[in-house]
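Sequence, please.
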């Protein structure tokens, strides 16, 4: 059994079309067919059922596909390790960061990871929540930092919870909210509002306002949290945002009570249908054991902290 036979079989199994599979493998169709036939001879049975132009996997083909996929992944991993060892080139690790997660806490982990794995080049990608699952499934991203609020879930994704983060109301210095210990969404409805378009609770937030006949006065909207924060600092309005996304001490904040209050979970995620490359495995494992609570304490993010 040769590696190219495995590659041809897996491509044919994915396409169920020998012509298309041959084109993607950059070989002629007769060459691909001969290689698969030789593989069938070695295994002692047919891998495909051909009925006219229709091609399907045989029972043996379905059984062998998973095993041969594992062999190919192991081969690719071995090549990557050997290449990095011989040429001392950094392995690239593509990590998605959901665009609503602030940089302060994550940067502490990334610094420690870099100190422990100087042969790995981490490339960060700012990704919206709707695109993350597909990018993980296809292998475009090796890992991702994701934020889940309420009953949200990503299917076919392995996750590990790193820490929890409150949703809060941010406001400018001198705002009346600074005199309160907590605010309600009814309080928010009385203020001009700066709308975060990428907020996880944005739709239920607006639904609550409509259902309670609250006339929320939106004065500006943006997808960028840095713009949102600067507009709030300038006194344009208040905004609901994750606690650790606030990157400046020029903003005051308060937890809010009632509907939609609570925290969200910050997790590390990877597709569970793929065998991770060594860099991805190291990144996921290191994130899972990192002392996140100590880092939160260093940044002053204690459970009882309330800033005015």
């Amino acid at each position: 059994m040769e590696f190219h036979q495995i590659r041809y079989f897996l491509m044919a199994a994915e396409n169920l079309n020998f012509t298309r599979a041959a084109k993607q493998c950059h070989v002629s169709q007769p060459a691909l067919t001969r290689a698969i036939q030789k593989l069938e001879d070695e295994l002692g049975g047919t891998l495909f059922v051909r009925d006219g132009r229709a091609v399907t996997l045989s029972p043996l083909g379905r059984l062998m596909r998973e095993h041969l996929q594992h062999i190919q992944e192991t081969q690719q991993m071995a090549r990557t390790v050997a290449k990095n060892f011989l040429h001392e080139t950094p392995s690239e690790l593509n990590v998605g960061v959901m665009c609503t997660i602030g940089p302060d806490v994550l940067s502490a982990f990334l610094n420690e990871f870099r100190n422990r794995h100087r042969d790995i080049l981490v490339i960060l990608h700012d990704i919206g929540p709707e695109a993350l699952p597909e990018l993980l499934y296809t292998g475009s991203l090796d890992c991702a930092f994701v934020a889940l609020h309420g009953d949200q879930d990503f299917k076919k994704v392995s996750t590990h919870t790193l820490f929890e983060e409150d949703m809060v109301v941010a406001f400018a210095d001198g705002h009346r909210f600074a005199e309160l210990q907590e605010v309600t969404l009814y309080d928010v409805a009385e203020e001009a509002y700066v709308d975060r378009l990428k907020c996880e609770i944005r739709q239920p937030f607006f639904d609550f306002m409509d259902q309670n006949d609250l006339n929320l006065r939106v004065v500006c909207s943006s997808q960028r949290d840095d713009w949102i924060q600067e507009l709030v600092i300038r006194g344009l309005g208040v905004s609901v945002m994750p606690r650790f996304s606030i990157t400046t001490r020029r903003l005051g904040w308060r937890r809010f009570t009632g509907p939609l209050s609570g925290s969200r979970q910050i997790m590390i995620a990877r597709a569970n249908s793929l065998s991770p490359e060594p860099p991805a495995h190291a990144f996921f494992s290191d994130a899972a054991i990192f002392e996140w609570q100590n880092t939160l304490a260093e940044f002053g993010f204690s459970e009882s902290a309330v800033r005015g």
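The chain has eleven helices and twelve strands.
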